[in-house]
Amino acid sequence: MAKTIRLTVAQALVKFLNNQYIEFDGKETPMFEGVFGIFGHGNVVGIGQALEEDPGHLIVRMGRNEQGMAHSAMGFAKQKRRKQMYACTSSVGPGAANMIVAAATATANCIPVLFLPGDTYADRQPDPVLQQMEQPSNLSITTNDAFKAVCKYWDRITRPEILMQAAIHAMRVLADPAETGAVCLALPQDVEGEAYDYPEYFFKKRVHHIDRPRPTARAIQEAVELIKTKKKPILIFGGGVKYSEAEEEFKAFAEKFGIPFGETQAGKGTIDWKHPLNLGGIGETGCLGANTIGADADCVIGVGTRYTDFTTSSKWLFQNPDVDYVNINVSKFHAYKMDGIQVVGDAKACLEDLQAALEQTGWKAGYTTEVAEAKAKNDAEIDRIYHLDYTGKDFVPEVDDDLDFAKVSEEFIKLTGSSLPQTRALGVVNETIGEHAVIVGASGSLPGDLQRAFRPTCVDGYHVEYGFSCMGYEVNAALGVKYAEPDKEVYALVGDGAYMMLHSELPQSIAEHKKINVIVFDNMTNGCINNLEIGHGQGSFGTEFRFRNPETGKLDGGFVPVDFAMNGASYGCKTYTVHSADELKAALEDAKKQTVSTLIDVKVLPKTMVHGYGDWWRVGVAQVSKSQKIQDVYQNIMVPHFEKARKY
User: Fold this and answer.
1) What pairing do the DSSP bridges indicate for beta strands 438-441 and 490-495?
2) Residue 401 — very low, low, confident or very high, per pLDDT cuts 50/70/90?
3) 25 conformational bin, left if phi > 0, alpha if psi -120 to 50, beta if neither
């Protein structure tokens, strides 16, 4: 008989996690660096006891909000290119429910995070226990069932022996580049403390290999046969290239055949923006260069991309009537999108095999001067918006859809003393933070500005979550990035709305002595959505941060000012309030000298973010309205664009 070790379920889980490793290209790394935890009655005397008694090599990090700490875990794993990760544990009920948004964010972005929420009692004897969600139709349903919709693998450990099978399946999913995302093992609080004689072999060292599956010869040949009939292809650099660490193979492929490329949010910043074939961000939040060439491309070679609506501009961007798709992806699901040729396998392996086969045909892309011209125009445009200053009443904002801009800007300037355009502020940040800095973003107008205009200064220096565009990811993930890259300056670029939504781990950065820099772009507005509604014929409804007007009964009074610097100072941050480009540069330079986290409160003019470049995004515009403006948008913009979109 196998030797056994008598442990509680929680103790066995901690011991098991200590013995999991990931191997990639011959390099072996502990799979889990540690565990984030907020302890309550559903986990403190279970997994909390196990971690206090014998954590092994696992670092236990305290969270301040369950969603926030899980965003930190995701930020860490994303920055580590999915080769190392964290587990997150919470109490039952609201603690568990708080993590559901973060689990969705991880799954949408294909980032591995292990969730270990406490659960109600498996024996049901104390029911209804504190924080239990009672469902009269099914007493087995708990808050943790909500994780099923947002996780790639879910299980509930209702008996001690279930842990053995469930834990191994959890590792299977977390370590699989084609299937990875959030994984949830729900832990009933009575079972956490239940003892069992676990076989020793359950705790042996397990190495989970991230292999490089090669594509089939048939798939490569189909791709070659298609590509060699094309003259103006474009490559898409997706996150899968980055996680595969295939950037050199991607660059070699592009250079060998003269193919320009656009970047997704997940892929951006891996290849130097100055590379002559790098045309920048592509799609709805793409830039002038990539979208200009993409519009006329006759072949789209997507490498490691999920083809989100922002990457394809709601399947409208690629307007060449003869356009075809070659989809290189480790996930067969994603490879089938856009009805393209499916080249399923590791990005590096696929690019190597495709290059070798395509070389034999002597094929080259047919571009002459178009790519260089598009890149030059794009560079000039970024230079322009980076140095755009407010010029008074004659100033035209980049997003010129609001007839009330003059009134709104006058009100804002009078209240804050700042007339700093957002594009100018972004330019100062880009030019000042330094070549080894990492920027983190996620929501509002900033991801669009960043994909269109930001010029990353180092590999892995661009960290933007846009699979879920989760407000509140920015500050909390920045701490996770700092854990992953302790020697780098990390900057969270966050709007005022997203900062107020969630910045829970900022005080934890002080407690951990892990300095992060938070740059709050305060325009007293949910600016991205404000622009969206105005651009589709509506007014500023429910998106500006205003006092309720006692005369109208509506939220159309004056702007509500917030002192974000004072908030940061209350946590122990070094803070700055900025009203001009010079003040921003000075604050950024001084922030580099600090040893504690910093917060820079930048007052930026509303509606001065980067505008779109040949893009379209499908939104549900009302087909019936009393407003002629909305009717015109529907008939003249939405209908014709939708008719030209690819119906897949």
Assistant:
1) parallel
2) low
3) left
Q: Give 187's strand partners.
A: 118
CA distance 313 to 644: 11
The answer to whether 96 and 59 have CB atoms below 8 angstroms apart is no
Which has the closest alpha carbon to 83: 36, 37, 25, 35?
Answer: 25
DSSP 46: T
Angle between helical axes of 347-359 and 247-257 (0-180°, round to 10): 20
Q: How are beta strands 299-303 and 324-329 bridged, if at all?
A: parallel
**Contact indicator for 238, 267 with CB cutoff of 8 Å:** yes
Torsion angle of the four alpha carbons 296, 302, 303, 309, in this order, in degrees rounded to the nearest 10 = 110
Sequence-ordered alpha helix ranges (H) in 245-388: 247-257, 288-296, 309-312, 332-335, 347-359, 370-386
Percentage of residues of the chain with pLDDT beyond 70: 99
Please report the pLDDT score of residue 103 as a whole number: 98
Q: What is the DSSP letter of 45?
A: T
Q: Are 399 and 452 in contact (CB under 8 A)?
A: no
Alpha-carbon distance of 186 to 43, in angstroms, equals 11
| CA–CA distance, 616 with 629 (Å, rounded to integer) | 18
Output the DSSP codes for 588-644: HHHHHT-SS-EEEEEEB-TT-S---SS--------SS-S-HHHHHHIIIIIHHHHHH
Most distant CA pair in the chain, distance: 85
Using DSSP's 3-state secondary structure scheme, residue 298 falls into coil
Find out whether 236 and 298 touch, Cβ atoms under 8 Å: no
Say if residues 303 and 328 touch (Cβ distance below 8 Å). yes
Query: Would you state the pLDDT for residue 421?
Result: 97
Q: Which residues, in sequence order, are CB contacts of 334 under 8 Å at separation 6+? A: 305, 306, 307, 327
